[in-house]
């Protein structure tokens, strides 16, 4: 019923470590972490679909949708980001709809489509960070 003390301590330590990383991250780094998490989830869904693991597929796709909606989409500053932020919002919403459809149809091609689109955006975001650019679009 209870986990061993060492397991609870390790879990708590991990939580503190993750929280420390998030607390110390710049806004640009936070968005990068969201993209990284999104790609991990999308690739996890791809693998689960290839293995026929429906439960894992659903878990990964659900997490990817949450990252898109609650992370990337909600981080957009449409006033300051202008057309770029609005275009990203349309893209993120499109990806949510494609992942939802991929889940319902068990369609690997739709997941791969989203992976390709988000990889391109994530690479652009990473390039902005290495060039010292600012995040006017907010994601």
UniProtKB/TrEMBL annotation:
This is Flagellar secretion chaperone FliS. It comes from Acidovorax bellezanensis. It is found in: Cytoplasm, Cytosol. Gene3D superfamilies: Flagellar protein FliS. Belongs to the FliS family. It comes from the Bacteria. The keyword Zinc does not apply. Keywords: Bacterial flagellum biogenesis, Cell projection, Chaperone, Cilium, Cytoplasm, Flagellum.
């Amino acid at each position: 019923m209870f986990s061993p003390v060492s397991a609870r301590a390790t879990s708590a330590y991990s939580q503190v470590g993750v929280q420390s990383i998030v607390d110390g991250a710049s806004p640009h780094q936070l968005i990068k972490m969201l993209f990284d998490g999104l790609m991990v989830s999308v690739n996890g869904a791809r693998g689960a679909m290839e293995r026929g693991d429906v439960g894992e597929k659903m878990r990964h796709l659900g997490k990817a949708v949450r990252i898109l909606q609650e992370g990337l989409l909600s981080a957009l500053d449409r006033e300051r980001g202008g057309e770029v932020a609005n275009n990203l919002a349309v893209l993120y919403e499109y990806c949510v709809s494609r992942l939802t459809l991929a889940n319902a149809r068990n369609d690997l091609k739709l997941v791969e489509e989203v992976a390709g689109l988000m990889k391109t955006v994530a690479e652009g975001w990473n390039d902005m960070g290495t060039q010292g650019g600012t995040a006017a679009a907010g994601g």
